[in-house]
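step=predict obj=Membrane protein, palmitoylated 7b (MAGUK p55 subfamily member 7) n=515
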Amino acid sequence: MLYHGWRDEVKELLTLISKPHFKSLLRTHDSVAKRDFEPALPPLPDDAMEEDEESVKIVSLVKTKEPLGATIKKDKSTGAIVVARIMRGGSADKSGLIHEGDELKEVNGVSLEHRKPKEILPLLACSEGAVKFKIIPGSTKEEMTSCVTKVFVRALFDYDPTEDPTVPCKDAAVAFKRGDVLQIVGTDDDTWWQARRLGDGSGRAGLVPSKQLHERRVALQRPRALFKLQNIKPPGDSFSGLRRSFRLGRKSSRARKPAQLRRWSSETHGAVCPRTYIEVVPYHKEPKDRQRLIVLVGPSGVGVNELKRRLVISEPDRYGVSVPYTTRKKRRQESEGLDYHFVSVQAFEELILNHRFVEYGQYRGNYYGSNLDSVQRVMAEGKVCLLDVHPSKIKHVYTSEFKPYVVFVKPPMIEELRLTRRRAKFVCDEDGMQVRMFSEEDFEEMLDQAEMLDSQYGHLFDKVIVNGDVAATFRELKADVEKLDEPEVQWVPAAWMRSAPTKAWRSCSSLTGWI
């Protein structure tokens, strides 16, 4: 009822609060404040009172579309169904009412005696609204402390739980791809860790193979690359990782160098280290920060030089290459500081002693090398420096100073290699006098070298690009490199950002059910 003496503002307010949608909002507010939205829990069963009140508890959890977030197993000695693991972020974890080691006696009034874990899942599926558990708390649970970590890692291998016959419970596992960033939230178990994959929008953790488990698997399944490496003899000439020309020359930008320059250092033939995870931390590029160093690696003939050349030509003010050093005499058409830095043997060897080379070697009695000073000159100009070295030499620039972004250029399958390179030619001597087509042996060697590089140095690669069609590969590479200038977070090795070693991840039971 409105009164004539009321002001217009009061009348308008009364009209607003009398509307149905506003009344619904007020009722919702009152319900949330009183927590009336929670389902009414059923009364405690009479038979529970007969047992010791401290030995049995009744837990009722609201059922949602997601699993409750716990794994169960059958105790071999007693035959009891016990909670093997609580998944971080799941309903059971958030409730704080169910713990690892608790014995499940009943689910929704149905006894679990003499039942198998897989027989319990249908009982949960039939539940509506809430799931009621009758539990005997684990005797040692209060003394147990859970190892909760906030470690982020980059996965260095693909994992698909549907193809893993050893995973305790496929529904509880997390699939991921090489390069995905995972947050490790639990390492209590030395076989299966708990982790969340960044970007999937779910706060619930799942199971991933632990570092120890994956290393054991790799050790049991010795890669073919290891056997190939063991059968290759180190080169006889005095090279130290030199495998291709150090210059981005005008005549041979598409060319591959002689066989001697394609031989790998004996450093390549070490033991293959299993790729697991590498700890990473978020990095936000500030406007004052220098551009990250771009390191391109790949087997000889795959097209690294061509991709590097195209990047420089596309934006010469943005991209630059480090000018190599050599002790060779300058030729008439060459320019100091443009083609090479020409130095004496004594000066070159002094630089070697002072550890100023990323990579160096000898060819026909002359030294050639990529110098750190040359890399820093390009970066000091505000350009993106493109560096092409053997992966074994990346360690010289794998620091917070350079923050290298390592791109592995990989050849396509041999059928596509034959198709895309069938008319390609490469220079097979330094003077560019001899030119020949790719042979079938060249293709096989390229694929073998790619497999060896990936097996040994895959943990250093931030990006893997398959170079089939060079034009498409160039566009993909350029787009990927340009993302490094965007404000989005980048994940870099934790070792770059701190000197202190990370606390070792602590790593207990095999799981059989997921609820």
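step=describe
The chain has 13 helices and 24 strands.
step=end
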